[in-house]
Write a structure and sequence with these properties.
Order of helices and strands: EEEEEEEEEEEEEEEEEEEEEEEEEEEEEE
Number of domains: 1
Shape: globular
CATH architecture: 6 Propeller
Mean pLDDT: 90
Helix content: under 10%
Strand order of the largest sheet: 1-25-24-23-22
Low-confidence stretches: 1-47
Amino acid sequence: MTLNASIGRRLLRAGTIAATFAAWPAVAQQPAPQPAAPAVAAPTGPAAAPPWAQGRPEAAIGVPLAPIAPPPIPTAADKLPIEKLKAPKGFKIELYAAGVGNARTLRQGDKGTVFVGSRLLDKVYAIVDRGEKREVKPIYSGLYRPNGLAFKDSVLYIAELSRISKVEKIEDNLDNPPKPVVIYDDLPKDEAHGWKFLTIGPDDKLYFQVGAPCNICMPSPAHAQIRRINLDGSGAEVVARGIRQIVGMDFSPITKQLYFTENSRDWLSEDIPEDKLNRLTQPGKDNFGYPYCHQGNIADQEFGWGHSCDEFTKPIALLGPHTAALGMRFYTGEMFPSEYRNAIFIARHGSWNRTKKIGGDIVVAELSEDGAVKSIEPFITGFIENNNYVGRPADVEFVKDGSMLISDDFNGAVYRVTYSSTVAR
């Protein structure tokens, strides 16, 4: 059984869920440095196929499936789909900030500032709480796909397409932000899966992915991997291989192991392969199978020849076909009920490479004491209505009071989820 809209209210067991992210930036939504291009349209033949259609079978040419471009400007606050979103009893969903164009990765600073990265725009934002209202400030512009953010000890780290920078004491200088200082730039410049996700491990190192430069291909030794570097950019090393694209990572507060979502290939079929939740147990040795094996048990029709899926590290749960699981965080706060503590909350952006869309939700994975997945349940639903998106969750972040923030890159907004035993919803 796979998590989808039709079973959104039922308990889901480990190994049966869904996750895939649009593998290519929509050409109508390039950052400022890129020239404008016409909206994505179904190509008329192989020669006209855009990059995201690489690997598409001839039978699918002309089928109206393509990456979904968000509206050109953020949705007005009074038009946001908050009332359409559903959460378990006791939880409340409200607007945290509107007007945050292409809101993606979320990170909170030491002094409470919420930083927001973007992928299709060139901006990093700061959301500052002014007491009676929150101010959205673009603190950096002119960056190139600044999707990845991390924060530690007053330092903001920003990952663009092909470089990682840091900004010291950023919260003390929000009105006049210092120029980011590049600490690492030994990175490919491929557009496909080039945007980064950052997290800081218990070893005080920055972890990030270098995605595959394609839908399905044999990657170079510099692609399809997870790297880590020291916080000054030194000491780069590869800690995992065989990954296609990651847009969410976090470390278990108990085992200190790295967990991450992985988006599987497109165009094999509408229903396979499923996306994955993975766990890194052997840094430097684990290989998660791309491009040879998908979802842990399906050999690729081209690259899988001569290989067994048993050669590779298995996923700990499947997240469904093309549901685009992106941001994920372990919950360590005190606000939510105790059964959610140390569980993983996963933002599923939602499918494009499927006729019937699935995903478009937040799911929660409960873990056993040894770190395996016991179950996965729906948590917030309602981003898909009549097979169309009314919003697309991209990342989650738990802030200091224990509440959850959710970024919606489709609407350019951030939502807040709180819990009270007296709230009826």
